[in-house]
Amino acid sequence: MRFVRFGQPGAERPGVLDDTGTIRDLSQDFMDLAGPVLAKLQGIDPRHYPKVEGNPRLGVPVGQVGKYICVGMNYTDHARENNMQPPREPIFFLKATSALCGPNDDVILPRGSVKADWEAELGVVIGRRASYVDEAAALSHVAGYVAVNDLSDREFQLERAGQWTKGKSADTFGPVGPWLVTPDEAGDPQDMALRLSLNGQLMQDGHTSNMIFPVARLISYMSQFMSLMPGDIIATGSPSGVGMGRRPQVYLKAGDAMELEVGHLGRQHQKVRAA
Description:
mainly beta, Fumarylacetoacetate hydrolase, domain 2, 2 domains, five-stranded mixed β-sheet, 5 helices, about 10% helix
């Protein structure tokens, strides 16, 4: 099943797509796609809910996100293009939840940004609390999967002192969606293609089978250090083809347009503009 949140920023309502791709409004029974609801998504019947007319804006397809956790250098080809050895353990860091935005919202370059970069990634949404979980049971804690563009400013991230977080957390640097796709429909998380085009030119063409640490291992590993809660998003890393890794390097500028897709999780479109 495919779930969405639709409406203006800050006023999104929960919805589900029926067999024809029409949005059905869930708000008569659910305040949001958040918390305990995320563990019960597969029991919802779209036919019981009214159709949504028109073509509303889509927001982040999960509400009340508590943690946005990103994984660095999780693809062998991405590590190679950055002249880095594959890590022995997963590298993860937190991205501010204020960076979250809808899948087709404009990406706004922060003031002073000259090295803004893209990263097409598979996102995982936690549906049930995970703490010290075994790898074999890890995927049972997943509510669904989402497409993610983990945008970064490489100067802020790598050339300014401190942690990666400040290069990752500008407003609009976290497009997610369009859909939250339940595991039964999304399929094997290690069998998804990832593609991102910039101004019509294919920049990233990767596959989740090339992850160094697969999704189940990431969930299990992270749960040893913190409890993963319903609504938490994990961005599982990016394949090669990012702007920083190209020769010559390419970075985003006002007027650019990105298109991104991951597996059967839908497609994103973003226009880039200056602050």
